[in-house]
Here is the input.
Amino acid sequence: MTFGIDDLPVRDELRGKSPYGAPQLDVPVRLNTNENPYPLPEPLVERIAERVREVARDLNRYPDRDAVELRTALAAYLTKTGHHRLGIENVWAANGSNEVIQQLLQTFGGPGRTAIGFEPSYSMHALIARGTGTGWISGPRGEDFAIDLPAAERAVAEHKPDVVFVTTPNNPTGSAVPPETVLALYDAAQAAKPSIVVVDEAYIEFSHGDSLLPLLAGRPHLVISRTMSKAFGAAGLRLGYLAAHPAVVDAVQLVRLPYHLSAITQATALAALEHTDTLLKYVEQLKAERDRLVAELRAAGYDVVESDANFVQFGRFADAHQVWQRILDRGVLVRDNGVPGWLRVSAGTPEENDAFLDAVRHIKKESQA
Ligand SMILES: *Cc1c(COP(=O)(O)O)cnc(C)c1O
Here is the structure.
């Protein structure tokens, strides 16, 4: 018997659990993690090198702990695109929105407290809850994967969670949540506790609708989390951020590690934000490809959930994992999220999407033969 994890005194709630892990397989076409398929444009690569060179000299010093320049630039981006005026005091940044969410749960969740999400949704919300000792409540969704508002309101009233997660557009199912639903959940959460409502807008730039940023006005318990991993095509950068009432920004500073955001990260993110217009053009291309995937999957006879994101959930399958494997056998990696009967495919380049569509059309023919 070799010494293993079970022989260590790990916390009870971590025993027997698995870490987050989308398979990283070496196949020609990888459409499984909702990354942006386009490499960063060359002028941006140059600008990143320039900005990083400037800060490299000062790496003997700790970085700007409050990331003032970066938060100012993020606030300007949100103000410009979100139809809502925000300043640096409304914005906080961390290493990916996963760290933002961790800081929020460390601040507003924790031992003896609970968080709720409406599942299937982003699995990291539950995992980060566990990691921070926050109890997790799996709230309901309707048959069509939309949030069933009366059922959700009842769950909030019954459990009185400290943190409520709403992912819009939702991952893995793809649809945006109507603003009225978010507002009703906010009101239910305030009546029950009052609790913090975290709206995860990781995919909002791909949506047919607008960001919920304007809802922040007069709602100090509302937090909107965003990321540069998807629309900005910078998953490798690790930069997430939130917009909220300044009191929330003050509160998360109680738990953030000192100097959590490296000078390199801040410089790189600032360079990317300088190229916002170019990067958002890729978003338009991906939205067109996403719409093409929806149309072609439907034409091929698959069920597809309406998508406001850069991915599409399709089905239905008696055995989704077996279909996942058959698509993989044709050189295309999609995602099996464990939602019974469904798979998820990220919008890639036109060539990658063609490869995927060829594979699923072929599989459909085989199963009808
Ligand atoms: C991809 C994703 C994120 C992004 O996490 P990062 O840590 O910013 O890379 C956040 N929320 C949802 C719902 C996601 O799908």
